[in-house]
Design a protein that fits this description.
Chain lengths: 345, 345, 345, 345
Amino acid sequence: MINIAIVGATGYTGGELIKILLRHPHVRIKHVTSESSPGKRVDDVHSWLKGRCDLRLEKLNIKNLARDTDAAFFALPHGAGGQNIASYVKQGKKAIDLSADFRLRDIKTYQQWYKTKHASPSLVKKAVYGLPEIFREKIVGNGRDRPLIAANPGCYATAVILALSPLLKNNLVDPDSLVVDAKSGVSGAGKKLDLMYHFSEAAENFQAYAVGAHRHMPEIEQTLCEVSGKTVRITFVPHLLPMNRGILVSAYARLNQKATVGQIKHCFERDYSGETFIRFLPEGQWPQTKNTVHTNYCDINLKVDERTNRVIVLAALDNLVKGAAGQAVQNMNLLFGLDETEGLL
Amino acid sequence: MINIAIVGATGYTGGELIKILLRHPHVRIKHVTSESSPGKRVDDVHSWLKGRCDLRLEKLNIKNLARDTDAAFFALPHGAGGQNIASYVKQGKKAIDLSADFRLRDIKTYQQWYKTKHASPSLVKKAVYGLPEIFREKIVGNGRDRPLIAANPGCYATAVILALSPLLKNNLVDPDSLVVDAKSGVSGAGKKLDLMYHFSEAAENFQAYAVGAHRHMPEIEQTLCEVSGKTVRITFVPHLLPMNRGILVSAYARLNQKATVGQIKHCFERDYSGETFIRFLPEGQWPQTKNTVHTNYCDINLKVDERTNRVIVLAALDNLVKGAAGQAVQNMNLLFGLDETEGLL
Amino acid sequence: MINIAIVGATGYTGGELIKILLRHPHVRIKHVTSESSPGKRVDDVHSWLKGRCDLRLEKLNIKNLARDTDAAFFALPHGAGGQNIASYVKQGKKAIDLSADFRLRDIKTYQQWYKTKHASPSLVKKAVYGLPEIFREKIVGNGRDRPLIAANPGCYATAVILALSPLLKNNLVDPDSLVVDAKSGVSGAGKKLDLMYHFSEAAENFQAYAVGAHRHMPEIEQTLCEVSGKTVRITFVPHLLPMNRGILVSAYARLNQKATVGQIKHCFERDYSGETFIRFLPEGQWPQTKNTVHTNYCDINLKVDERTNRVIVLAALDNLVKGAAGQAVQNMNLLFGLDETEGLL
Amino acid sequence: MINIAIVGATGYTGGELIKILLRHPHVRIKHVTSESSPGKRVDDVHSWLKGRCDLRLEKLNIKNLARDTDAAFFALPHGAGGQNIASYVKQGKKAIDLSADFRLRDIKTYQQWYKTKHASPSLVKKAVYGLPEIFREKIVGNGRDRPLIAANPGCYATAVILALSPLLKNNLVDPDSLVVDAKSGVSGAGKKLDLMYHFSEAAENFQAYAVGAHRHMPEIEQTLCEVSGKTVRITFVPHLLPMNRGILVSAYARLNQKATVGQIKHCFERDYSGETFIRFLPEGQWPQTKNTVHTNYCDINLKVDERTNRVIVLAALDNLVKGAAGQAVQNMNLLFGLDETEGLL
């Protein structure tokens, strides 16, 4: 049994973590924290949980966490968790961090994009970018070289990296030609109140935001550089969909040579062979966000546009599951040597 | 007073035409036709019109149309209108065709994309592509050289052409680098029943379709070639949004030199100077489909991604208005020498 | 030309007022006020208005309003307008108040439901409840007896009163048996940020609120008492719909005798004979909110449930138009002796 | 291990059954049938199932079903299953029928409401109305008196009966005063194509349908008569919500005496004491459909409107789960002596 805590349990990601972990056969939730609502019942904040959860929220107390748990999920805004995570992992515990704080290896890049001083820069090298389909071995670790922190990727980042990785790894495309048009449901913005996410503003509406300036770009480029061994610069434009959950990314890249669609598909199938959570779809079936919602799957398909010698890759996932909480549990499973799919099927 | 007919008046575009023309100070609707529902009251088919419209649908009778009207809007599926349009315009009448039948100058291209033999190939050269902001002079005509048919552009095509035209016309971008990611609300699919547009399939869902194979591509490329004088090939991927009305296109292009965003914006402002229906938005305000719905506006803005030397252009419009019925009325105004904005503000 | 002001112009109702009045042939908008955003352009707050409106918001200045305008629409929260309205109308101007402040004749009832001291109790008797289809003569006034203030009804209240009035006026139902189940789109809640109206909470969700305790109850009962001459108590439960605009009320009442559906329909048709904005639908056509959205219509139909001797009346309208801004303009037209439908068709 | 079949597996209910049963620890799905799509893979029809299900659809063959299975879920339209169900259960198997064919005890009532001759009238008395919270003992059966068929209730019916049963059973209300206003998401209509369920017709729209004439009425009244021992006639009006999943019923009843809300709540708590799937909510928390979606819960709360001496009961559930597939599995668990909640938490 793995005893865990969820730090910052009142948001949508926190709720999704509780939902998944309540069904996990090897996990017991010992602490759920909230600085804004200590003392409240979890099933009053997440009212859909009524009858399934008796936990009460508490203020974060690292000593108690260290005493009672083996791992903790930190679902706090960026910059809010750093010191606490440091204290926690120094006591030999594992942390799965859903913020961006430990995703970027270069501290300057982090501070430039997140406009905040990094709270624990020395801990960054003990973190691993928690995308199992790309970095499984690093997450599992090896003898002495075990990560203390799994830095859970951004929701968009997961979809983009999974969509583009085989193309770059197999040198199929020009790394300077990458365009990614991403779309997400509103739950990706969290529970914070903002006119942009007010129902009357977001419903029956569609728009781009953070155009070419989204914070997921550095972690996407860092990872794609790592898998390809090249400098990768993407043009990335996210958009807000008038729906709750789901992300679809449409990625475009110029092919290096006239690789056939068969060859390209073969690379995807080979690179993702055996990956439970990547569904490479049959010919003609395009990923639909609805097919991934409430699952930990990422659905992918591609097409070669022969007229322009481009490949178009489409990838769909649930921003709260494979884009956040589901992937976090997948990382926890790996950190603890469990079946990676435990609690996620 | 211009007497008009609407042929194929029961669909969403037909309904939108009726709505706009009922308010047009110089138009009288004399005939509304439907082969599937002759005899029915228009306000039974379009129940929102109750109290505002006493017309009854009839089977199409070109003789009556020619006798009673000066112009007719043909809102029929592609291939369904050709002969009738020919008979009608041969009697000196004007036709605004909302199908694709007269948009493409090359008959072979038409037949290849629409999988049907063209009903009136000789009439194609008497048609003009009805995008006023690009082809106003051709639509208005000149002495002998007056078009008989305004071929109303496809909804996506209007948005894409307006987004990209200044870039190509002013040689700002590489015509080989164009990627267009388009998204439309479901009304663009019309009233036909298909599982894909069933509420339970389309709501809370997002997906691509007709990937790299959408019928609007040839007319987009034809027009962009015309404005730029170059061969233009685009990668075009449409997507279905879980909402009723609205299109947003996100267009990506590689800049030829290091043109500043100021220079690029200047080209847009100059090319569209005085255009009532193009709103080039202030810095930082991204087009939202909601702001264009129920109007004939196309909202545009752009950004230069300096890291990748690309320009990103976003364009939003209402697929049923500027993408169809509104633009059709705009064309009618031009064909008859009226104020172009009549009935549309 | 009637010069008008809109006080509190940044909310959804304010935006709808601007939209309607920009098209009104006899109105000129001279002032638009906002205490929270003075100096801002109206088309920055209501970005859909870009290109159609050059007005700037200002802080409210009653002196300027009195100097420059003939009438003012007050779209402020309850309790916020009272003194200003008093100052304004004392200078011989007309006010159309969209708050609840002047709807209730009994001050104690007002203070009990709105939990605030009434700012101008003496002015209440100079106000008229602005539901034209019921109180036209009072709104128009008569010689000396002209109202200074049209108290625009609540959105739900309009629908409920129009649905039930003929039943009560003609003594067709037991006034003790009235049950009203009402449903509204989210725009009825306004722009204020609240978790309940956050897209992720309201989308794909449906719930009741203010159960049996909604503030529209006293004005509904006051009006129904007036039209029937009896004490009327209703059970009223509003619900929040996962959509932007539209209200449907489903009203249930026990029939007094075995009145036939024909007789009941005759009463509705007679009572609402000639009413432009009430559409009593044909047999079998049930009101749909969508058919009323962006119009000033209220669609009504009814059915007799013979098994239970009840009548079911359904009424749909657009909460922002017939439920607010449209009705306000209708009232303005009456106050100024214009054609009641001006600007509304 | 219970071997089961799903007859009519391509609809939304069929898909939901597969989803639940794939996770049921004691069930193996041996056959899934479809007359319209035999040979197709289940995960091509229900594409969200990809990677989780290798089954292929087949034409219904009762012999094979009887040979290979212990129980079968019949998810066919009313009138379509009767003979097959008869053949199946005559071989000692259990059937859970999701159609209406075995819900009504009076054949004449069935034929009057469903406009079809009953295929197996003699089998009706061997069926039990499958609402466990009301008829658990009958479903479990007793020695010789074991039902062959669990007639799964209609989705609306489940919510209405659970909402009203304690009121009637405890003689708290006048059985002549019942008004039920029901609202459902579009998935309740199934996959069949109809303009009413076309996204462009159903989105951003709300309307009533089958006013006072919905087929669930006879089974609601049959059941409420049974629990109360009185004749019960309800006025029932369903409405279509612009969302996928979820039902909320708002039920209104006149109280017999001045029972306090405490007393009424006590009856609900007592009658539903220990019921896993009924969540009687705390004071002030109104049922939201979203909290029940993808669960087998029915959330209930109530309020007494003292001014009118009425009680208002609100009940929410997921039309595809507690309203159909979840309840069907609950019934299967009971028929086979398993823990009732197996596979449903």
